């Protein structure tokens, strides 16, 4: 894996997006491993009983995609340190999700090189079902 | 912003607010870490490849940051909010202090930090904010999650 260094980054930089298209099958796999145990994630019928069109993708699963984007970007020697997201819209299986982030701020605090980013997921309609901010600690070349 | 009068009018158990409860412990196993990583479509060898992880900065397989969403815990304190017909995730705020490693025993504490009401474009919404703190068997806090759940009345 390539490593990004603090010195290589500047505000305005966009991370290469990570694209996900979760299927119903993948949602079931995720749910079977996770603590969520709600019918709306595994059965269209149960979801419709709650007034939804069908199965929805758990917010935690979408958030996991966004955290993958950020922790992969941080690399082996960096680390995702904060992630704060708002769940604004439903995500459905079959949606095309582009996980994206843009650097907004950089600072060095107590020897840690911290990068703040706007992080969000954009669907095929251009909506942002998940929107938030993140902080990543990066290594320095120095 | 929270509407104080509206919040005062919501019926819930105020005695649980701000009180930490032990909600169990969890062994971080290779099987669950790689299973979770595959379910998300992770490709990072630090989560998936034991040999590569050995040579990495932690010397052992680590869990992806969002792994905590796969940790089954006991039910935490329930403020028994008497409002709404359905609930959804509203927001989540995570702070990651160090990775969870395969072989760690993670213990978790949970509290209901706040319950508050506000009026959105779809009517009254009642938010419950839970704070869960995860510590490893060395006694170090590895992460904290504040999770906000919103209750609303679908019939509104």
Can you put this structure into words, describing what you see?
The complex is a heterodimer of chains A (about 140) and B (about 160). Chain A is α+β, with helices and mostly antiparallel strands and about 140 residues long. Chain A has helices spanning about 25-35, 45-50, 60-75; strands at about 20, 80-85, 95-110, 110-120, 130-140. In chain A, strand 4 (about 110-120) and strand 5 (about 130-140) form a beta hairpin. The longest helix of chain A is centred in the middle third of the chain and has 16 residues, at about 60-75. Chain A is elongated, with a radius of gyration of 17 Å. The model of chain A has no long low-confidence stretch (mean pLDDT about 95). Chain B is of the alpha+beta class. Chain B has a domain at about 5-30 and about 70-150: Thiol Ester Dehydrase, Chain A. In chain B, a hairpin with a 5-residue loop joins strand 4 (about 125-135) and strand 5 (about 140-150). Chain B starts with a helix and ends with a strand. The chains are: A alpha+beta (about 140), B alpha+beta (about 160).
């Amino acid at each position: 894996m390539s490593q990004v260094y603090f010195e290589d980054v500047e505000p305005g930089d966009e991370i290469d997006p990570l694209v996900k298209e979760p299927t119903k099958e993948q949602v079931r796999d995720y749910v079977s491993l996770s603590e969520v145990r709600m019918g709306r994630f595994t059965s269209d019928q149960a979801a419709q009983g709650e007034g939804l069109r069908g199965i929805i993708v758990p917010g935690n699963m979408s958030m996991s995609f966004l955290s993958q984007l950020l922790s992969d970007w941080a690399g082996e020697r960096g680390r995702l340190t904060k992630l704060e997201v708002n769940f604004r819209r439903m995500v459905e299986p079959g949606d095309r999700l582009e996980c994206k982030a843009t650097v907004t701020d950089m600072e060095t605090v107590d020897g840690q090189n911290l990068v703040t980013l706007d992080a969000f997921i954009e669907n095929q309609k251009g909506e942002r079902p998940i929107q938030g901010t993140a902080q990543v600690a990066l290594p320095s070349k120095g | 912003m929270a509407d104080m009068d509206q919040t005062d009018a919501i019926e819930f158990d105020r005695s649980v607010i701000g009180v930490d409860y032990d909600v169990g412990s969890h062994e971080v196993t290779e099987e669950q870490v790689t299973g979770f990583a595959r379910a998300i479509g992770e490709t990072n060898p630090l989560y998936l490849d034991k040999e590569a992880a050995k040579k990495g900065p932690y010397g052992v397989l680590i869990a992806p940051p969002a792994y905590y969403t796969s940790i089954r815990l006991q039910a935490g304190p329930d403020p028994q909010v008497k409002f709404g017909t359905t609930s959804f995730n509203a927001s989540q705020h995570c702070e990651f202090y160090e990775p969870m490693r395969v072989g760690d025993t993670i213990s978790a504490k949970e509290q209901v930090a706040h319950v508050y009401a506000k009026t959105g474009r779809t009517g009254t919404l009642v938010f419950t904010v839970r704070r869960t703190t995860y510590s490893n068997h060395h006694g170090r806090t590895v992460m904290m999650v504040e999770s906000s759940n919103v209750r609303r009345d679908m019939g509104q």
